[in-house]
Amino acid sequence: MPLVGKDARNRVADLARPGNYNFHFFYLRRKMPIINWIIPSFMALVQTSALLIWPKKCAKIDCILILERRNYSMFQGFSKKTGEFLWELAFNNERPWFLAHKDEFEEHVNAPFKALAGECFALMEQRYPALDCRVHVSRIYRDARRLFGRGPYKDHLWFSIKASQVLLEGPMFWFEVGAADYSYGMGFYSATPAQMEAFRRSIDANPERFRRIAEGVKRHGYKLDGEEYKRPKKLRGDALIDGWYNRKRIGLEKSFDLGGDAFSQKLPEILVSAYAELMPMYEYFMEIYRACPETGRPAPRGTGNAAE
Predict the structure, then answer these.
(1) pLDDT for 162-210, tens place per residue?
(2) Is the CB of residue 258 less than 8 Å from the CB of residue 83?
(3) What is the pLDDT of residues 2-45, one digit of tens each?
(4) CB neighbours of 196 closer than 8 A, spacing ≥ 6?
(5) Residue 181 neighbours by CB distance under 10 Å
(6) Beta bridge partners of 120
(7) Which end of the chain is more exposed for a tag (fewer CB within 10 A), N or C?
(8) Distance between CA 140 and CA 180 in Å, rounded?
């Protein structure tokens, strides 16, 4: 629900701090595509003034609030040149080649990728204000301490969206693009042994609740992955639940050849709709995380088993 009155003015004042965020209030592209060509700085001034002076009227407009870090723009879609650059980088992974082609990287890879991350983040904030989420965007540069014979640059980029209180080991939504494909989903990839033990206890305490959520994930066509224990845990004899029960960490994903929706302006809306499909499982994982955070302390019995 759009902010109005005092809440809207406070939100704008917070975001408008010097050096913090640029933000743009705009009509959906399908209603006003000309907005893509208007000078962003001028629009920011006009639209911010309108929001401060007429917050209630602005709240009635069919629009969305985009909170972008500087230099983020509206996502126009990836292109064939995105994949071509990443393929060439994979075969020429060295500093001189990258510096000679850095302008291509910025235009065809980095700029659209950051625009996508910024727009998805804004849409998630709008749809789930209570989530208090943050976005993390990967860099093209590999950690020099962990090259292990590889080149200094990644041949793929990813971003994640997760709750602000979540550190490394926590549930997150994500998107990744590479030379030949792109994928998205949600996962609990760095879960500690204590967290996964709490997850299994949660299933044991209320298997029907977990079954309903897992069936929803399966119905939407997400692939379940994640390293499994070599020595199986005590399974339940339930094919659906056992696929989750014996994992050290859990991921859910869909993967596609680079093209189609990835070349469309609608990709941010597609991703956020996908994250909405995964939200029940994300919330389930967050119950585990809150009761058993990164410190590894054991969770109380029955964690996450409250009936829906």
Answers:
(1) 988 776 668 999 999 999 999 999 999 888 889 999 999 999 999 999 9
(2) yes
(3) 444 445 444 444 444 333 333 333 333 334 445 444 545 555 56
(4) 247, 248, 249
(5) 15
(6) none
(7) N
(8) 17
In the structure encoding, which two tokens stand for residue 224, read together? Answer: 């379940």
Count of other CB atoms within 10 angstroms of residue 239:
8
- How many residues are listed for the chain in this entry? 308
213-226 residue pLDDT tens: 999 999 999 999 99
Exposure pattern of 17-36 as b/e (b: 16+ CB <10 Å)?
Answer: eeeeebbbbbeebeeeeebe
For the 71-291 domain, the top CATH level (class) is alpha beta
Tell me the domain boundaries of the chain: 1-70, 71-291
Q: In the chain, which residue ranges form alpha helices assigned H by DSSP?
A: 5-15, 40-53, 55-60, 80-91, 95-100, 102-105, 111-127, 193-205, 207-219, 239-245, 267-291
User: Contact at 8 Å (CB) between 49 and 91?
Assistant: no
